[in-house]
Write a structure and sequence with these properties.
The complex is a heterodimer of chains A (508) and B (170). With 508 residues, chain A is mostly helical. Chain A is built from 22 helices and two strands. The chains are: A mainly alpha (508), B mainly alpha (170).
Amino acid sequence: MNLNGNTLALLPEGILTIAGVVVMMAEPMLKPGASRKALGWLAIFATALAGAASIVQLRVVDQSGRIMAFSNSIQVDPFSIFFHLLIASVVIVTLLASLDYFEGHADHAGEYFALVLFGSVGMMLMTCSVELLMVFVGLEISSISTYILAGFRKGNARGVESSVKYFLLGSFATAFFLYGIAMAFGATGSTSIAAIAQKLGTTATPTLALLALGMIVIGLGFKVSAAPFHVWTPDVYQGAPAPIVGLMSTAPKAAAFAVLLRITFAGFAPFEHRWASLMWVIAALSMTVGNLGALKQTNVKRMLAYSSIAHAGYLLAAFTALPQNGIAAAAFYTAAYSAMNVGAFVVITQITGYVEHTRTIEDFTGVALRRPWLGALLTFFLLSLIGIPFTGGFFGKFYVFSAVIGGGHWLLAVVGLLNSGVACFYYLRLLVAMYARHPHESGNDKAVYTKLTPAAGLALAACAAGTLILGMMPGRVLNLANRGAAAVLAEPVVEQDPTAVLMDDTRR
Amino acid sequence: MQLALFIIFAALAIAGALNLLLQKHPINSALSLVVVMLSLAVLYWSLGAEFLAAAQVIVYSGAIMVLFVFVIMLLNAGEEEHTTGSRAAYFAGIPGSLAVFCLLSFVFLRESKALGNVHMSNAPAGAMSNIAQISEVLFTKLLLPFEVTSILILVAILGAVVLARKEEHE
């Protein structure tokens, strides 16, 4: 197959965009009451195709090195492909899990599928762009889709609250990110990550560059819900539909982490000694705030929201490690975290359904006795979130903490391990409740028990297989993560950068 | 002259922004926002960014603010209730914004020598105009972000449809 470089570089994004437009156009053609499952399957098929396109890209990259496209604003390398495949998998599983979610509840589920597709276009663009303006547009596409998806359940006050809070705080964070980009441009005269790295050594305004990085970290810190920028997370996760929480706690975060890895390790590499200590503090704070916060929660979704803050902390710890190890460990951790967290939310979707009468840990009492398979799977995902050996969560934590120790940050590793111990309490509390008999003889009336559909079964099997494979034989994924790390650190292509002309003329 | 222009319109922008926050009626707030936008346009123009100034007037004051005012009028929004503000605003918001303000001033003052100044008068004759430069960059080097913005707008439109439609089930 002979493809133009520009086409090949954006093939996955192109496929998803076209599919999104088709789904969006087909939605109004269907009768209001008709099932939207066909549109869902179309979206799943398109996402799988996009994943396949990424694998084609990997073949090309294997043969002829990275692909630079669109005036060096897009760089397709093993790093971007790793995250493309990760995002595609998360989106497929989310779509599979939400195929039956809307049956009989929402009439316009097609718009939901279209928004998920467009959101994944934004996330994928974030991971492969090396031009901050492109990153910004991608970030906005992914964020705006998730704001809307968070409030997709109409007539649900918590849903509206979730959507509005997410939108307001997210826009606030975006403003910080944009201001950071503007300052980076002010300090280095460019918005391309490679050119920033090149000019940072000779910049006349290092303080401005440092402030720029600070603003970018704040902006992305909001998106990955790192403490102290985490306050929105519990409320948003509580009100959003369960499959969407699974999506937005993993895929956009993975994309934001990919951007942060590129900006810090490739763009602001000369400042590493400064931002590494900043990341140290944020990581330690996120782990502690997340785990201590989760201890007090009775609502399961809120508890998992705090747990996701803690996991963002573990991930941020990897930033303090040596570049190659740190990037590889962080990339692997995002994959492991995505598999187990999406899995947990797919199970919760199955148990709670659209209306979500089952909310608190008390409501979950005895669930595993009635639905043994779902209970067993949730147990497995929770054990993986704790980090028990033979699960993806164990290897994720293992690589991150060994990378952190390799970088000489013993204390941070100790903080992380202590936090993992604390985390056992709240995950196990939910586990124990699931296997306990409900105090009332009649059992738990509030729970909505539906039958497991093939699509949801497939989604669950995929998550379980992913978590298990990452825990038993992480070799291939780790290999790709390592190659991705090497690609981020590789000598960048610096052509004459896009914005230099404008800069020279205005700064007379 | 530039300094005088800057002082006048910067003061106007700040006054407009404060008025926006303090006014009780949404229409007054919206109109103060127009003042802010227009003052910013003058500031851009005085910095030599005439295209940005024009876009600011046309897009923000012209299109977006008109829409704001329309919506407020159509909804017939009344006066806000008088509240003293939440505790979070006093204990986190005000100190936080003050801290950001101080940090920014500190950095810009510290780097002011290296950053240099822009003067209206010293544009060389025959230099490429601002709009030519922007369009060149926009349609060559930054073509992709420019094109992908269309997806962003599409998502926003789709979102408006999703949020505004009525669900027959409820």
